[in-house]
Amino acid sequence: MKAVLVLDDGTQFVGEAIGAAGTCVGEIVFYTGMTGYQEVLTDTSCKGQIIAMTYPLIGNYGVNEGDNESGRPQAKGIIVRELCREPSNWRSTMSLDDYLKSHHIIGIQGIDTRALTRKLRDKGTMNGAISSDSDFRPEEWRERIKSYSIIKPVDEVTSREVVHYEGGGYRVALLDYGVRTDMVQALQNRGCEIYIFPANVTADRILDADPDGIMLSNGPGDPKDCGFQIQVIKELLGKKPVFGIGLGHQLAALANGGDTEKLKYGHRGGYPIKDLAQDKTYITSQNHGYAVLPDKLDPKKAVVSHINMNDNTVEGIRYLDTPTFTVQFYPQTSSGALETAYLFDEFVTLMAEFKNSRRL
Q1: Which pLDDT tens digit goes with each residue over 234-244?
Q2: Which CATH architecture is the domain 154-359 placed in?
Q3: How far from 156 is each of 62, 159, 190, 241, 282, CA to CA, in Å?
């Protein structure tokens, strides 16, 4: 079945429909990872987006229930050069095409993804639509495509009630802005007791649980849309150790008087970052469209701890006046390298030190 991809500047790519039939509109971003298509499709950071995969062959190891990063796919659509319809992997339970159909995700294959990626790199992130409808008329969708925006997606992806996981170690209050499954697993692997709180919870409710530490999760959208969450973080700073990841990193910076900006085309895939304290570089998994501005950080309150080796953007911050540290990348991910999982160990150490200092 024929499908068409239309960008907000009128550019069209004609290919073959994959996944569900129909039309979807979203923000088009490109993902550079060779693997991890299931993880990125189910990552809440992709809420409202159409994912263009730069690696030419996608779907060769199929899909399984164990690699989801949330309860369901979050992306609105997918773009690939070539879809593998006969996957080969012992963990596979279905093909990517069947998975897309079962979750009503619309896609297109057979287009020049290199040309699309070059356009997005040159012009920045663009809105677009994928359609396999026979009566689709691009000119009739032009205004709808141009006016599309992702509005407060955190409200859509956060948990609706408090979730509790037993554990014999430190108690962690995990603020859910769209938390990934592997981040919960990283805390469980360290024996932590976990309370996952919805994004609309108050600071008093969090502190009533008497956590040893607070974790700010990843999530989608513009951090400046999260005014309530920023205020809650302000009320929590200094009262407990805080570890922020992704959106949580950006919100912590805003709560500390910093600023953020939207990147031209974002970081989605594998990227080298440097831990300045260790003078060591790691390859990390990332999925974000905003970054913290280094020149807006108060040097008396915060220092940059990690930088992106490609564009020197801020990848980590350590705060000097509160027991708080944050990173932009994913410290542990099933779709990438695990070397930066040491940051979870540092969080556990920080909770222990903070708790012991209160006993003195």
Answers
A1: 999 999 999 99
A2: 3-Layer(aba) Sandwich (3.40)
A3: 28, 9, 29, 27, 32
